[in-house]
Amino acid sequence: MAKPRASRRTLDSYSIKDSNKTIKPGDCVLMRPAESSKPSYVARVEKIEADARGHVRVHVRWYYRPEESIGGRRQFHGSKELFLSNHFDIQSADTIEGKCTVHSFKSYTKLDAVGNDDFFCRFEYNSSTGSFTPDRVAVYCKCEMPYNPDDLMVQCEECSDWFHPNCIDMTVEEAKRLDHFFCQACSLEGQKKLQNPQSDTKVGKKRRRR
Questions:
Q1: What is the C-alpha separation between 39 and 147, in angstroms, rounded?
Q2: Buried b (16+ CB within 10 A) or exposed e, 65-80
């Protein structure tokens, strides 16, 4: 005779062991990797449940790092970038190391400081096909690459496009010292504007890293 399945109850929250932090469905968590040499896994908690013996399990949806995707890490991927995958799993709550925050891309670029537990996501990732949603994003600079929030860029005062210093034959140090910048396409009009300056060049990552 088959053994009856142990009854499970859904929990509204769970207190992380050896921590004063509590998680709820919808929160993002750091989970212990199989190999100690690797960084913590990141997941979004979908459901928390406990069995009759008090063992707690979490239903999660995994975030992938760029290097874990089929295409691998690319130049425009930020160091704190994650992809929300279609890979669902059930894990013991004992493997949760702590809470983290996965920001939208827009919110992340507005942070004054980025902490160790701050990440961002701008793509959903199909782990079976290697496809992304959305399948295209805005590109910048002469290299026509999506924005990497880790990289310093300089903005043209005329067309408002952003450029990587090395793409315009400039060092990062030179870019930081700029008072005005007009890209090659706008340089003639820019020289006229310098006769009557009304704006300052924007240079930066748009936030600091701590």
A1: 24
A2: bbebbeeeeeebbbeb
Report the distance separating Cα 204 and Cα 199, nearest Å: 16
| SS3 call for 32 | coil
- 43 CB-near residues (< 8 Å, 6+ apart): 28, 29, 31, 58, 60, 61, 62, 63, 89, 91
Cα separation values, 86 from 13, 43, 125, 144, Å: 23, 11, 7, 29
Its pTM surpasses 0.85: no
Q: Which residues of the chain have pLDDT under 70?
A: 1-6, 189-210
How many CA atoms lie less than 13 Å away from 67 in the CB half-sphere? Answer: 6
Collapsing DSSP states into helix, strand and coil, what is residue 113? strand
Check if the beta carbon of residue 71 is closer than 8 Å to that of residue 32. Answer: no
Q: What's the sign of the alpha-carbon dihedral 17, 18, 22, 23? A: negative
Pairing of strands 56-64, 153-155: unpaired
Segment 135-171, tens digit of pLDDT:
889 999 999 999 999 999 999 998 999 999 999 999 9
